[in-house]
Amino acid sequence: MSSAQPWRQAIVLSRFDLADGHELLLHSCEDCACPVSDEQAVHRHVLPPPAAPDDSCWVRASDVAEFPLEGEYRLLFNPLSSAGVVVVNGSALDIFRDFRLPAVPGDVARSRPGRAVEISQAFGRLAQLELIHPAGQRPRPEFHDGQVLTAWLHVTNGCNLRCPYCYVNKSAEPMDESVGRAAVEAVMKSAVSHGFPSVKLKYAGGEATLNHRLVISLHAYARELAAACGLRLYATLLSNGVRMPASLIQACKAEGIRVMISLDGLGDQHDIQRPFVNGKPSFQFVERTIAQLIRQDLAPHLSITVTGRNTSGVADVVRFALERELTFSINLFRDNNCAASFPDLRYEEQAITEALLKAFAVVEDLMPRWSVLGSILDRGQLLEPRQRSCGVGQDYVVISQRGKVAKCHMEIERTLGDVFAHDPLQLVRQDRTTALNLIVDEKEGCRDCSWRYWCSGGCTVATFRATGRYDIKSPNCNIYKSIYPQALRLEGLRLLRYAASG
Ligand code: SF4
Ligand code: SF4
To answer: Which residues make up the CATH 3.90.930.70 domain(s) of the chain?
Structure first.
């Protein structure tokens, strides 16, 4: 652009421009062992101060991807930085492109007379967001150790539904109080001895509400122990949503326990894969529970599992969630022994990609203030660079109804010891025989992928089941590569809508 042409003030937007930005980052950790902790989300809110122009040469980061967005706006994304999606207008894009080759900021300003202040400010923002960097000092991704020890407490092995994709070899056996207390004690001890400041308990099963009295009493005990140990405590109740006793709702509200409900579609689309034991449909019960929770100011998070059966209804259930201002996550069916006799659960790449893109269109239509980048991409998340797709073997323990310890809830029967005699975290960290959760750079096919520090190569248990290997890319790789750019676009549109308006 020549100096004679009209120009608009350079605009550079990122999630850090949202006043409540860190609270709007949602992780899909409610139903898996998410490696991004709540503490890390808070840390990300702090950016380094903007760089002041000096006489050194700066250059645009070579890995930055550019996508068109809306009108003059474009999206910039540096996969090796923690800054996330950045939206720029045409003027800011011109300044960014001025650093295609190493350039001194002062020279760039002089090439655009009358815009020195604006260029200095835009330069500072682009540098702060690691889109340009001092020549020869390419940004490197920063990885953080987990700050939250997450424990799956399998409070019952029983369930009133018979979802064909469920990996639990069900029985009526509940966890009893003594096992539950021993489990909570062991988790707290693990957290303290391994230096975690926080613990997150997931009350799960089976159907956790079938043992709701234990959930309530265990949580009270966990709260006492956490306070005595100086630990922060988070908790989530995972439920099929068929019925939620009033006492449990009150306890969740009083104790700040989040509720996650599985909802796979509307009407038949849900019932086709979440029937009662007797085969009857469950949707109307789940819908009623969701309405009840919303009325009682305990808005649930919805977990949507996509299989070959319900692909056509994913967009509808996403619309259902957004119209009620509910957060949600989308998970792709993971094959397992219990589901082996239902071949129609397996999905076609193209069908599932199309279904996800239709759901993304609904997100665009009803754009929420919160970022969907951590929750709509199965095991991928585009919120924070990371080396592993989940916390298995690092900061996640699974405890069965009998107090046995396993690495992943999908492999709850592959036990390593128990909470009565062992430090559960030590057990899972030492184990080299089950669910090897390798870093993404060790996975064949992932090492050179530009998405690697955001995707991390997918669920290790699912990959092993499909390929017999842990050190290889996810069988969902093609799906992931198709949806990641579209997800970034959604984030760009969110920033345009909410960050631009302050
Ligand atoms: S699974 Fe595919 S998209 Fe993910 S990091 Fe590996 S190669 Fe990249
Ligand atoms: S191994 Fe897979 S199923 Fe298990 S916690 Fe990790 S992502 Fe979830």
So the answer is: 12-30+38-142
